[in-house]
Amino acid sequence: MTGLNDIAHTYAFYLLPQPDNFTLPSWDAGRGYNPVSVYARMNLSVGAMFVEVGAPIAADYFPFVGYIGEKIHSEWVRCESMGASKPNPDFAVRLQRSAFEAGEQGKLENYATPQGLLLFTPNLCLPFLVCEAKTGQVRIDKADTQNIHSASIAVRAILRLYNAAYGRDHERTQALLGHILVFSVPHGNHVVNLYGRYAIASGNNDKLDGTAEELE
Questions:
Q1: What is the pLDDT of residue 205?
Q2: In terms of pLDDT, which residue wins out, 6 or 130?
């Protein structure tokens, strides 16, 4: 998505080219955030211009927004990686534990393993938006690559959860194919892209169990 308005373009230009500025202002730290890179500030400032959170307003109409939380620069320590390293997105939006009742939490935690993923971090459940921001020579290409890795793991986790709950042939599991499950947003110096990530069965397979070999 390259058609940013003038305000968003100004944020992108002045916030991203600051590789030595790795700490958020003290008032951000006071709200409970750990000191993080300017990339995270970029995601919060520019991202909100086209992915509006609107929690104070939306809560009146959609009570479930209270179950949604955000995480800044947190490594997904519990996941089975698809590469040499584990994802560490600059910004992610996900479900909180409070989205599930106590009985549901118990069942899900019994299911949870690095392969049957539920909690990506101690408090991060099933992210559905991941953001990366990069500047300099690597620019948006590296952000794209990191987002593909993170989003693919998140999509696979949803598919495996449905497979465990309903079975691979159930209509609810099959209905996930071809539907966007995770959004990813890479930021460059002057460009912001928005992608919808979904899975399809690879080759001649019309079924799936969430393995990398059976999904594209």
A1: 52
A2: 130
